[in-house]
Amino acid sequence: MPAPSRIAFSFIRASQRPLATSYVKFAARAYSTAKEPTLKERLIEIFPAEIEKVKALRKAKGSTVIGEVTLDQAYGGMRGIKGLVWEGSVLDAEEGIRFRGKTIPEIQQILPKGPGGTEPLPEGLFWLLLTGEVPTEGQVKAFSAELAARAELPQHVKDLIDHSPATLHPMAQFSIAVTALESESAFTKAYEKGVNKKELWLYAYEDSIDLIAKLPLIAGRIYRNVFKDGKLAEIEADKDYSYNLAKLLGYSNNDEFVELMRLYLTIHSDHEGGNVSAHTTHLVGSALSSPYLSLAAGLNGLAGPLHGRANQEVLEWILEMKNKIGSNVTNEDIEKYLWDTLNAGRVVPGYGHAVLRKTDPRYMAQREFAQKYLPDYDLFKLVSQIYEVAPVVLTKHGKTKNPWPNVDSHSGVLLQYYGLTEESYYTVLFGVSRALGVLPQYIIDRALGMPIERPKSFSTEAYAKLVGYTF
Ligand code: CMX
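^ thats the input. predicted complex w/ carboxymethyldethia coenzyme *A below
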């Protein structure tokens, strides 16, 4: 088969792509402008050693006990049970997230920035999560160009979004669109053709990059259809991912909003493997469902109010407070409103966490952004005021193990400031970012040949027997 021209390769429908590894390798060079290796070339170099590392570790220490499980943990959402492998990030209860060992402030320092910007490019974070290496500016620029070139959506996905009723929640539309991209899956086609298991990661990689590339057009289309005039701007081939997402939402000339998107997409990406969206993507992927089907499953989990939808809930909760109290809100008003919420048997959205026991550094990164760009914005001041009162009230209430704010407590206010006021849309932005965090592990899982996931369950009767209890 004659080699297709370099750039043209990415435009060939996945179904027509050649499956031989040499061609997939060839595609890895398509966007390389310099002598530096592309992301795919680095992975081809890195993965064999990673596979050997895991083999050696398991051979030497495979039968070592790494923890014990109590009955309470089985009934308590499996908190703290060690049983997942997640390479990109580890969450410390006190310190918060580290991406490949690096804190958010470190990430803000070391990752390449957009032109004239100070926030990291999320494309760079994706690279770091996947390889453990900080890419150069040139590598990230080439990667951004690759994403822009692969962004176009198939017609049936556009049609599905366009035919969704405006009353269907944006997250449901998002999940439908990602599921429908399954038609493009090189991974599924490779599996059907009987490709060697060891090569499946290459197709997982191709799908993941295509999928990430297409998310801005999906997210933009949903936003413009549901909340605006349905008209969508075009992707610019030489611009970064966040710039293009901002433009598709309708922010063509707003450098600050682009910076916000760079920060937002970076910090919402990954939060180790046990959270609902990450774990679901990983679990569904373990059945060798494609990256499209796996991410869609993860997005459905992110749409829940105790997880990603909390950013929508926070905004609604704050606006309801303002409505009830008026614009002059005192700390005593907030305290009463918090108690009303708690006494009604509801959770305070944006507070608490299954792992964290301190203020979420993702909250702090957004707070610093607000202090820089919108220090006098009334809703930011209100969020800061809630931050003074809520931990005290939640501590008095005595239920939550963590009275401090999480990431969702702050994000909506920043979006409101820039005019993105439709809070039912907020979790879609979280979802775009989450793809950048969970798909690296999907690719690594396939490279490591991770098996289908299947923990053990028991009935209450069986557990009682196990622990020697009679009812
Ligand atoms: N307001 C009121 N009660 C809360 C609370 C909050 N913010 N956070 C926890 N609690 C309650 C729990 O509901 C639980 O009550 P029950 O014993 O009656 O079931 C008790 O405190 C103990 O919970 P926990 O061990 O501290 O917290 P969990 O690990 O069970 O839950 C989380 C974690 C995030 C679901 C919970 O803190 C919560 O519901 N927060 C509000 C929703 C939210 O902000 N979610 C976003 C999290 C970040 C993300 O994933 O995006």
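The radius of gyration is 23 Å.
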